[in-house]
Amino acid sequence: MDLTLMAVHAHPDDEVLTTGGILARYADAGFRTVLVTCTNGEAGDGPGGVKPGEDGHDGEAVAEERLAELRASVAHLGIGDVELLGYRDSGMDGWDTNKDPRAFWNIPIEESTAKLAALMERYRPQVVVTYDENGGYGHPDHIQAHRIAVAATEATGIPDKLYYTAIPRTRARAMFERMRSIGIDLGFEPSPDFGTPDELITATVDVTPYVDRKIKALRAHASQSDNIWLLQLPDEAQQLVLGHEAFVRVRCQIEAPDQEDDLFAGLTEG
């Protein structure tokens, strides 16, 4: 049986932090890996960190650069197939870009779901990974990516397993404490309930052998490096933060253990 992993993400660069390791790991194991990127990233930083609405920000130029960076990131991770839905980046919650009728957030859910469902029909993934219902941290495009991934899974019935990415709460606290201890300004005060309660985590995958490739993939997204705070961490802290990827399983149509260290548990022998 040909095994396929599909990751549904919102923007160029989202593929790395929470799923870069599994994409690299399963690609190396000979599984088909498919990355679906829903937007082109127009609301990302322009030259010098300029934001949408500020002088010098050209959304089309930003998207062109970010898609080029995505290709470099994909090469580092060894992802086999990349599918761009081509929607416009909605920007952070509350930005004026949210009002653009072309923004992913404003596209009728039936339309974007149909596009993703067609990709599921083509690739027939056994495992699909996306964000939770809050999009991880409330970004409109992450929430919309979640919605269409769930809807397409339900409409097609193809994936055997559906997972949400997660950052375990205890690991998040340790990470923030480590950053403070070495003098990194977070730029915000993390909520004490940031991350997913540890007891809800159903899968933790060891991707330690792929940390260096994840870091190279993060660095490939150089135009957004001001937002990629992990690159500010010393090497040993990067290894600690990036070496495991956690998930919450929300759909399972096969027999599989309650706690997993392999997203394809129950689908492979041994």
UniProtKB/TrEMBL annotation:
One Pfam family matching this protein: PIG-L
Domain of life: Bacteria
Protein name: GlcNAc-PI de-N-acetylase
Record-linked InterPro entries: GlcNAc_PI_deacetylase-related, LmbE-like_dom_sf
A single GO molecular function term of this UniProt record: hydrolase activity, acting on carbon-nitrogen (but not peptide) bonds, in linear amides
Secretion signal, residue range per the UniProt entry: none
Organism: Acrocarpospora macrocephala
Alphabetized UniProt keyword annotations: Zinc
GO BP, one annotated term: glycoside metabolic process
